[in-house]
Design brief:
single chain, 330 residues, alpha+beta, Beta-lactamase, 6-stranded antiparallel beta sheet, 3-stranded antiparallel beta sheet, globular
């Protein structure tokens, strides 16, 4: 029996075959977390602390080179895209979106909506959680609440932001994100879904390998830096992690694991007040199928978890609080 087989057998992991972990990894330390993930259709689990990979596991059909749909984990790229655009002076967080969307200037609510309102999901423009509208459909959606009044989770605000970036850059928003962030980090999506208008979905649809998603996480933890190069202004990036009054648990496209968090909906697995103790240093990108990118600057910790998705009604019960305890208590 080789070292990898011995370590996994000793850990008692009743999982599908995995790739070999790095020599410095401690597979048995994270056995419970790996089992929890695999039992809930997990296909990847990656734990990196202080720049060192502690654990890497790919139950079938996962693999280190295989990308998986991030679902709403895609949303968190928009905040980083916006931070880059702030640095490039394409926009400002508190500028009215109507400066770019003249269609909104005669609407008493829409003309006061800012970029910050849109990405904090407090613009007053709601919409369904599922299929994203086209960019044109999104900007026609009504504002049913005053800006800042209410947190409304859904796809439409991110498609609105996509249209704003299309007009600001004069091209494809994904091309801007690739040029400013992905290419310098040497990461690339394995796929990215587009709508009937040919434009990239902003609230969902990106696919990444666990390793590339973790590289993006490293860049965020490092305050927009890649090695010695500052790709995105740290102050602009950190605005993504400031909560709104309407939802203390959501920033600009990122979840903040803090008391008062309002989750996207029932069954999402995102912890509420009673479960948040010990996790307030974490921010999170999250998507259906329990796609997760957990980041803690305080702990210098990156956790990537990806899984298969069988629909919300058929999805196994998931708890971020339980899973994080298994990681942190290891």
């Amino acid at each position: 029996m080789d070292r990898r087989s011995f370590l996994l057998a000793g850990a008692g992991l009743a999982l599908a075959p995995t790739i070999a972990a790095p020599a410095s990894a401690q597979p048995s330390r994270f056995a419970a977390a790996a089992r929890y993930s695999a039992e809930r259709l997990g296909v990847s689990l990656l734990v990196i602390e202080g720049g060192r990979t502690l654990f890497e596991d790919y139950p079938r059909p996962g693999g280190p080179a295989r990308g998986w749909e991030l679902a709403s984990g895609t949303k968190s790229f928009t905040g980083v895209m916006a931070a880059a655009a702030v640095q490039d002076r394409l926009l400002a967080w508190d500028e009215p979106a109507a400066e770019t969307l003249p269609e909104w200037r005669d609407d008493p609510r829409k003309r006061r909506i800012t970029i910050r309102d849109i990405l904090s999901l407090t613009s007053g423009v709601g919409g369904p959680i599922g299929r994203p509208p086209t960019y044109a459909e999104a900007i026609r959606a009504p504002a049913t609440y005053e800006p800042g009044q209410r947190f409304q989770y859904g796809a439409t605000p991110f498609q609105i932001f996509g249209e704003i970036m299309r007009r600001k850059t004069g091209g494809d928003p994904l091309a801007y994100l690739r040029r400013r962030v992905f290419d310098p980090l040497d990461i690339r999506p394995t796929h990215w879904r587009r709508g009937a208008d040919g434009m990239p979905h902003m609230p969902q649809g990106a696919g990444f390998t666990a390793r590339d998603w973790s590289v993006f996480g490293r860049f965020v933890i490092d305050g927009g830096r890649a090695g010695r190069r500052q790709l995105v202004d740290r102050e602009a990036l950190d605005a993504c992690f400031a909560p709104s009054q309407a939802n203390p648990g959501y920033g600009l496209s990122w979840w903040l694991l803090r008391p008062g968090l309002i989750p996207p909906g029932p069954g999402a697995g995102i912890p509420q007040d009673a479960d948040l103790r010990g996790f307030t240093d974490f921010v999170m990108a999250a998507g259906a199928g329990n796609q997760r990118l957990y980041l803690s600057r305080q702990r210098d910790l990156i956790i990537v978890r990806q899984g298969r998705f069988r629909g919300l009604r058929r999805a196994p019960r998931w708890s971020d609080a339980e899973f994080l305890r298994l990681i942190l208590d290891a």
